[in-house]
Design goal:
The complex is a heterodimer of chains A (960) and B (276). In chain A, 9% of the residues lie in helices and 47% in strands. With 960 residues, chain A is mostly beta strands. Chain A folds into two domains: 4-265, Immunoglobulin-like, CATH 2.60.40; 338-959, Beta Barrel (Maltoporin, Chain A), CATH 2.40.170. In chain A, 56% of the residues are buried. Residues 1-10 and 113-267 of chain A have low confidence and may be disordered. The chains are: A mainly beta (960), B alpha+beta (276). At the A-B interface, helix 9, strand 44, strand 45 and helix 11 of A face helix 1 of B. Chain B: Keywords: Signal. Chain B: Residues 1-21 form the signal peptide. Chain B: It comes from Corallococcus interemptor. Chain B: GO terms for molecular function: hydrolase activity.
């Protein structure tokens, strides 16, 4: 049943060998293989590893003729299995994998004889690939990846079933001739090579969950999965396996779910955001992190911000308006972190902010790259890239969470969210739909002082001893999406997806330095994509995407308390307080084409072209007061307001041309060269008229070089360089709002702003070690980032914040490290720490450090079983003391110090109940630590911004 | 795991806090912070109400220094002005509610006149002068009201200038009298662009800070207004004030005292602490 052979080319060596699906525990495993065309082969080695261990090498001894044999010692044959591949030492010194590879080894299950599958549910020809999930869930999804690779209905029709658990040494010789035929996938496009190196067969029908995942994965938006699974094996083995995306995707996902279920080699989390291909985090040419569903659940994360806050080098804070702000490596700027939702940009064209704090229930994975991503994504992928990948696995999933925040008055401020999603595949048609609803009343914490303390007291609006107000954190969120894709056989696959996000929430405090409880912020996002992809002959793929999005924000801020007076007289009395409202609508149309081309088996080229038209189609700023502080009968634009929808800044055409080549020079050494050329349309402020009608195309070149060395199977080293850029947002370029005493804290647009660039140098290492049953993964990296002409709002005037490029730049350097220890599937501990130092080089030595985000972060977590059915997860998040920056005199005298913090979350989580349900009980900020974030005017809002206190939630998840 | 690895990891964690670094915000802004630049003849209050709602000795010192910044130029300067918001009590490390009688050091003076704005002398029309002062006093509280959040736009004036303000009058008509360098200014101002006064002020005001943009327009760029940026003492307001203090108030006998240059009528006045 199991058979894999190498291409039988005249010169190419090949190995005829079949991996046994199963072996006895504690008995040595004999592996036989026949070498074909081995003239240039000096030696053969089997490299194997037990659960979580690094690879160990044993030579294959020549028995006679071209038959070689190796033995895996008995002490390594432990449940649940071993993995191995065969490598040849060539006469020229190179090492070439001949059978499977380090990245995609063959798997042999080790353990007791399994019960026969129920008749009818699985074909008889395939043993050992399944069992009753209840009896041994850990083995359940474990299938030999080097298997025949047939779909359930196609498999086993001709293969004689090998006896389960028999001595494997005989398998090779015995099964060779019949299986040779059998192994040719009917959909293989290069049958002459007769090789199928797909990751695994799809033998999981006995387990509804596993099969759900397998087939469901096919419909994921990232059809890149397909290519990657395919390509990974192809590149590594040097054997062609031209299969359709679907089957290889299934293979990938099977092995993925196997990893999830077993946590056997879970160190190999994947990222697709760095190269547009799914690749293992440890080997991608970037410093990244990936959180899969199980990890997010173990974190107790409810939203994306909860997950991001435990990524090394990343800190999430909130501002007075309630926005979550993501700081990466010591710098915080909304427009400089690219957020993608299934590859579609979420950052708003106007101000760069992203509606990213979505519930995680709908997400399969969150991928984070620290460092530049412009070589792939162009402008905006500056400090980092976060890709949110939604779940499209077949089946139905639902989750309900309810809980809340205890308030001072003893009442519970309710928070409830629900998730429902379903996906189905019928033949070539795949459908998915999902819905998230989120509603929370939110915390209500005291703000003692604000900028209107004196006025409010003087006007009798409150007593001296009364606080200025309370935070308000109510939120309603709707996230609904759906899609359909259809396989057109040779013409590729066409898909349509659409998503609508709608958020309505309170401002946590208000616009700037006053409490405005009646503020209402709404944000609607519509995303739509039409995609097409097609495999190319020669193991390539071409993809095209047509995307559209529209974002509408409507932000109403209450600037003063009710019944506030700006002077005497009725026209200066504001029953509802002074108010302002900003309504912005932006649209983006994107067309992109990219192609993966395998130039040779070691060299892979990705070419891409993207054209994007962004526009600001509506901008309205209205106030209910005049510039001299009188009440308007109805809100209107103040005198002197510039219409931003006119002029060159309101439209932007981006053209990007990218090429990236991944060249595996030796099996241990991969070089990545990437180059992206971006032409961005920006207003030409040097135009004499000063009207900003003219625009110019600004061209930027963003190179990337990556060197990934697999020094040994346990150790991967990386050396990376990348350049990224971002263009100023229209808000930074042109928004100017007439200044009054009540609407301070504004950016003052500067049409002369230039794009800013960053050069990043990174050195990374990734080590996997095993000791007994436990495995430890250690990752660390050091980085240096030089920002040229960063766009930084520095308050110098006290009323408005003029934006400009800081000519001497900003430099950041630091280290990040993480370690994860897995003792079993349910018991794990992890820790990460990061340290960065950011310096504004324009300043004298004593004022250079940028310390408004924690320079050091430390996060740790532990998951442990409490009996058979319950797990306990505890997560600690710590951050170092924060202090105000000293970039300007005003920053110097607006001092604050936010002490170091440690927040603890704890969660009780059941194992799946009746296979379909999971219950968690979760407490956030368990010890009610008084966490605060910075405010723009610490001299006025003296208590800074109070963050969420203790809260508790109960979640029920169901999946079918 | 190897014990050595564990030890190394723990050592790294222990060292982590030592790697944190913060700016030393107490570093003096000048090289010679302890050098005495002059003497104060009385205690100078630095609270908002005193710098933005009343005459203030340091405000007057700065305005005088501005007035004399271009001494020797072909056309003498008529008026120096500084906005109350330029005088700060926050300090680099500690908030100072007042400055004691006696010697004033260079470091403290630079913390009070903190912003290091450049000084520009420029021609203004009579209308602009009057509008400047109307804007300056429009936020003043009427007698009987409490002084809350006084505006930093309030202007202090140089010697030889007297401003009379009646807070009982409506905004825009509060200036009842103005005498600049001994010359009476017509109230309301004559709309005659040929009547010019040469005024020294910080670039902050000239560029429109504190709401003066509408009044000053592009005077700072208009060659017709003959804008001249000060070169003396590096051209910054604090250095110019320090140099002027050194030459004008060098001893406890010749010490700086507040003068009643702005005469308030029907205006709220900050309550001065009893002299110690």
């Amino acid at each position: 049943m199991v058979f894999v052979a190498a291409p039988v080319h005249a010169q190419e060596p090949a190995l005829l060998h079949a991996a046994p699906p199963r072996a006895e525990a504690r008995q040595s495993l004999q592996l036989d293989a026949t070498l074909v065309d081995g003239g240039r082969v000096l030696e053969l080695f089997v490299r194997y590893r037990g659960p979580g261990e690094p690879y160990v090498q044993v030579p294959m001894e020549r028995q006679y003729g071209d038959l070689y044999r190796a033995v895996i010692p008995a002490e390594h044959m432990v449940s649940p299995g071993v993995e191995y591949f065969v490598e040849a030492a060539m006469v020229d010194g190179a090492r070439t994998p001949l059978f499977m590879s380090a990245l995609r080894p063959a798997r042999v299950m080790v353990g007791a004889q399994l019960p026969e599958p129920p008749p009818g549910r699985a074909p008889p020809g395939r043993k050992g690939a399944r069992e009753d999930p209840k009896s041994a869930p850990a083995i359940d999804a474990f299938t030999p990846p080097s298997g025949g690779g047939e779909d359930d209905d196609a498999a086993g029709s001709s293969a004689p079933p090998p006896a389960s658990g028999r001595p494997a040494g005989t398998a090779g010789a015995e099964t060779r001739p019949p299986n040779r035929t059998d192994s040719v996938d009917s959909r293989t496009s290069s049958p002459s090579r007769g090789t199928d190196s797909r990751g695994s067969n799809r033998a999981d029908v006995a387990d509804p969950r596993a099969s759900t995942r397998v087939s469901g994965a096919d419909s994921r938006v990232s059809n890149r999965t397909d290519a990657s699974g395919q390509r990974a094996s192809t590149r590594a083995d040097g054997k062609d396996s031209r299969t359709t995306g679907r089957s290889s995707s299934g293979a990938t996902r099977t092995s993925g779910s196997m990893d999830d279920d077993l946590a056997l080699y879970s160190a190999e989390d994947v990222l697709s955001v760095t190269t547009l291909q799914e690749e293992a985090v440890r080997t991608v040419p970037a410093i990244g992190a990936s959180f899969n569903r199980a990890q997010m659940i173990a974190l107790g994360a409810r939203t994306v911000a909860d997950v991001l806050d435990v990524v090394p080098g990343v800190s999430v804070s909130r501002d007075v308006q309630g926005f979550h702000r993501t700081a990466i490596r010591g710098l915080r700027n909304d427009a400089e972190v690219l957020f993608l939702l299934d590859g579609h940009r979420l950052n708003n064209f106007f101000d760069g902010k992203a509606l990213m704090n979505l519930p995680v229930e709908n997400l399969e994975r969150i991928e984070v790259i620290r460092g530049p991503g412009s070589a792939i994504y162009g402008a905006g992928a500056f400090q980092g890239v976060v890709n949110l990948v939604t779940t499209h696995a077949d089946g139905v999933r639902g989750a309900v969470t309810t809980g809340g925040v205890p308030r001072d008055d003893g009442r519970l401020a309710l928070a409830t969210d629900g998730h429902l999603s379903a996906a189905h595949t019928t033949g070539d048609l795949r459908l998915f739909a999902d819905l998230d609803l989120w509603s929370q009343e939110g915390d209500s914490l005291v703000i003692d002082h604000d900028a209107l303390d004196d006025e409010s007291v003087a006007q009798g609006l409150r007593d001296v001893d009364q606080p200025a107000g309370r935070t308000r954190d109510g939120r309603f969120l709707l996230n609904v999406g759906g899609g359909v894709s259809y396989g057109l056989d040779s013409a590729g696959r066409v898909g349509v997806t659409a998503r609508y996000l709608s958020e309505k929430r309170d401002a946590l405090v208000g616009l700037f330095d006053t409490v405005g409880n009646d503020s209402q912020l709404s944000w609607d996002v519509l995303l739509a994509d039409l995609t097409w992809e097609r495999p190319l002959s020669g193991n390539g793929q071409v993809r095209a995407r047509l995307g559209f999005d529209q974002q509408s924000t409507d932000r109403l801020f209450q600037l003063t308390p009710h019944d506030f007076r700006t002077g005497s007289g009725l026209e200066r009395l504001f029953p509802d307080g002074l108010q302002e409202q900003t309504q912005v609508t932006v649209r983006t149309v994107t067309a992109s084409v990219d192609a993966d081309l395998a130039l040779t088996k070691e060299n892979h080229l990705t070419l891409g072209f993207v054209a994007e038209q962004q526009s600001l189609s509506r901008y309205a700023y209205t106030t209910n007061y005049t510039l001299d502080g009188r009440l308007r009968p109805s809100p209107a634009a103040p005198e002197g307001l510039v219409d931003l929808t006119q002029g060159a800044a309101s439209r932007r055409l981006n053209l990007g041309l990218s090429a990236q080549d991944q060249w595996t020079v030796l099996s241990a050494l991969t070089l990545t060269f990437g180059l992206r050329l971006d032409a961005t349309q920006l207003p030409d402020a040097e135009d004499a008229s000063g009207a900003l009608d003219a625009s110019k195309m600004v061209v930027r070149v963003n190179p990337r070089v990556g060197l990934v060395i697999a020094a040994s199977d346990a150790l991967v080293l990386k050396a990376l360089y990348g350049r990224a850029f971002r263009a100023p947002t229209p808000q930074e370029l042109v928004e100017r709002i007439p200044d009054t005493d009540y609407n301070q804290g504004r950016f003052e647009g500067n049409p002369l702003l230039k794009p800013t660039t960053v050069d990043t140098f990174e050195l990374g290492m990734d080590l996997v070690q095993a000791a007994g049953d436990t495995r430890v993964r250690v990752r660390a990296n050091a980085f240096l980032q030089n920002f040229a002409s960063p766009i930084t709002p520095v308050d110098t005037s006290g009323n408005i914040v003029p934006l400009r490029n800081r000519e001497l730049g900003v430099r950041v350097y630091g280290v990040e490290a993480e370690a994860r220890l897995e003792a079993s599937k349910r018991a794990a501990a992890w820790v990460n720490a990061s340290l960065s130092r950011a310096q504004d080089l324009e300043l004298p030595d004593q004022a250079r450090l940028l310390t408004d985000v924690p320079q050091a972060r430390f996060n740790a977590g532990v998951s442990m079983p409490l009996g058979d059915w319950l797990n306990l997860d505890v997560v600690v998040r710590s951050g170092a003391e924060r202090r105000n920056n000293n970039r300007s005199t005003l920053e110097l005298i607006r001092r604050y110090e936010i002490p170091a913090y440690s927040l603890i979350t704890a969660q009780l989580r059941t194992e799946p109940i009746w296979e379909h349900f999971e219950v968690t009980l979760y407490a956030q900020n368990l010890f009610d630590h008084d966490l605060r974030d910075d405010v723009p005017r610490p001299d006025r809002v003296t208590g800074l911004l109070p963050r969420e206190g203790v809260s508790g939630y109960l979640t029920l998840r169901a999946f079918y | 795991m190897d014990r050595r690895h564990l030890t190394a990891a723990l050592a790294a964690l222990a060292l982590l806090p030592g790697c944190l670094a913060y700016n030393d915000s107490c570093v003096p802004l000048v090289d010679d912070p302890d050098a005495v630049v002059g003497y104060l003849g009385e205690e100078v209050q630095l609270g908002n109400a005193f710098t933005r709602h009343d005459n203030n000795a340091l405000g007057q010192l700065a305005a005088d220094a501005f007035l004399h910044a271009e001494d020797g130029a072909a056309k003498p300067t008529d008026l120096g002005i500084i906005n109350g918001g330029s005088l700060r009590d926050e300090g680099l490390c500690v908030t100072r509610t007042s400055l004691r009688t006696g010697p004033l050091t260079n470091g403290v003076l630079h913390e009070v006149i903190l912003f290091e704005n450049l000084l520009v002398t420029v021609d203004l029309t009579e209308k602009q002068i009057v509008d400047l002062f109307e804007h300056s006093v429009e936020g003043l509280a009427v007698e009987g009201q409490s002084i809350v959040s006084p505006s930093g736009a309030f202007l202090h004036v140089s010697e030889g200038t007297t401003l009379r303000v009646d807070c009982a009058r409506p905004r825009g008509q509060r200036v009842t009298g103005l005498r600049v360098r001994g010359r009476d200014v017509a109230i309301p101002a004559r709309d005659d662009a040929s009547i010019r006064y040469r005024v020294a002020m910080s670039t902050f005001l000239l560029e429109g800070g504190d709401g003066y943009g509408g009044i000053l327009g592009n005077a700072g760029q208009d060659p017709d207004r003959n804008p001249v940026t000060a070169r003396k003492s590096g051209g910054t307001d604090a250095n110019i004030a320090a140099a002027y203090m050194k030459s004008t108030y060098p001893s406890p006998v010749q010490a700086l005292k507040e003068a009643p240059r702005i005469v308030f009528t029907n205006c709220a006045r900050p309550a001065r602490p009893a002299p110690r």
